Amino acid sequence: MEEVVARDFLAEQSPDVVINIVDASNLERNLYLTTQFLEMGVPIVLALNMMDVAKDRGIEIDACKLSELLGVPVVPIIARTGEGTGQLIEQAIHLADSDREWLPRDISYGEDLDEVLMEMIPVIENSTPPLLINYYHPRFTAIKYLENDERILSRGRSEDDTVAEKLEKIVDTVSIHLKKTLDAYPEAIIADHRYGFIKSIARQGVVSHHIDSDRLYASDKIDKVLTNRFAGPVIMLAILFALYQFTFSWSELPVAWVETGFGWLGSMVDQFLPDGMVKSLIIAGAIDGVGSVLGFVPLIMFMFFGIAVLEDSGYLARVAFMMDRIFRFFGLHGSSVMPFIVSGGIAGGCAVPGVMATRTLRSPKERIATLLTVPFMNCGAKVPVLVLLIGAFFADHQALYMFLFTMLAWLVALVTAKFLRTTVLRGDATPFVMELPPYRFPTLQGLFIHTWERTWQYIKKAGTVILGISILLWALMTFPGLSSDEETAFSEARNSLLDSYPILVVQEIERDGVGSEPLSAKAMELKTKIFEMEGEKAGTALKRSIAGSIGLFFEPLSTYAGFDWRTNIAMLGGFAAKEIIISTLGTVYSLGDIGVDDTASLGERLVNDPGWNSVVAVSALIFIMFYAPCFVTVVCIAKEASWKWAFFSMAFNTVFAFLASVAVFQIGSLFN
Fold first, then answer.
1. pTM
2. Which of 67, 387, 398, 620 has the fewest C-beta atoms under 10 angstroms from its C-beta?
3. Does domain 2-97 have CATH number 3.30.450.20?
């Protein structure tokens, strides 16, 4: 589908110039697309990329000779270092400024097909208006009919059903003739002749080999180990575990610095602003909400850096290759691997491009099964939540637990896909072929650019979308607040408490923090009681809020999974975006103080809360990983498939996640 989209764009928009980038180390295979551009008449500049790899393999390419034979500018480049890219852009601008017309190039397809093309072209040209003339030249339209291109056939029928029917009859006739005489169909013959055209060009002094072309290249030698049937998967799992070990080990100190910074910022605001709504909004809504999300920026950076190394080195393509055998067992296509990885199969991706990446799948049923299961992966929005809970309750084995939950995400996604492919999406599997790029040493510049781009997207989302939703949720967790009678009751209870202690003790409490003199035992006792009373008041106010009422409404059901009303509020916020879970928990435990120090991190607050323990944490992790995709992903599924499948994804995922969480909590509670 992505090839059809690209072709239709060129045909409909008629750009002034197209830069066609080809792999110089595999020139004959890569020039196939170039020949199609030439047949369309697209004004192209050919970029011979990876010239360094071609040189290492003993391949020499005469760019001037290739340019002469193809009739288009050819520029050798090495994209990873930038060599030749300046000249490439100059050539593209020059061609665009030349106002060159779209002039198609004819390629011979043998006597049988050439005669048929000569018969079809007048039929197209003599139709009124000429069939598909707004998109393609008549000869190219005729070739697409011979190739049985569904998109072209459909458009032809919609424009002129009579002409389209006549063309299809001509194609049927020649197809029957070729099947009888050559045991082949027109599309196969067309492909053979295109490769013949390419080979004839390559053999006219364009490509020369100075080293045995059959030798085993370095990438092939490495692949004999890394993609070995038995050793490959073990090495892959070891690399994944090493990535998590690297991420958690190196990010621990920077994460602590950021948390300390937000804690200091909150204390400064608390010290200088008077009590009231503005202070509550800034501390609970912004600092504790968004700060909880931004606190994981260092960890996200290290994780993205590790993934960029795997991606830029060419190893991720090997992961897709090795996973094909497993995916086929579960009813998916090998091409489904990349959407899974893009969505967070290693962690840190996004389900939206993952869903969009399913366009490469030709089978509609395999495509639907893939786009419904990619949201199970641990995307970049889920990673901070997983890190928060794992770091709080399983601090001694963070990398191990992150690795195990990643494996669990894959297992659940694949089992779900198998269930869908054997029920609502039954159908045959399609074959899988992919190109493995050579291994490359990533450049530091490339790694830093990829890391920063993804991290900046995370920061930008936290500072815009998450900030807005955090403020909205703060309002829902603040209003309508306590009634006047309840305010009076708490005020009277506080005054009564103060009256029960000597005036000197009360004055000692009021002076606390001004001097360095420690509090007396009586003063400490009074301070603790006041703290508990204020916590009770804040908790009651939170319960009376709109969000609190919603959380309490679902609590009788969510209790089976170990979630109290405060956790319910956070989970509801996660329907918008999974990062909201952290910001909402930060706001909830800031507004409804549970009796811990104000400077305590969110993880410490959860550990100290009697409603949380390791079993509840695992139950929450299971629910967060698998319940409904975020709102943007749901919209993307609707656009790529339909709203029926989007609503199915929300309902199916949420029901499954809740039942799994209930099972985990109930079984875990028996052994806890």
1. 0.70
2. 67
3. no
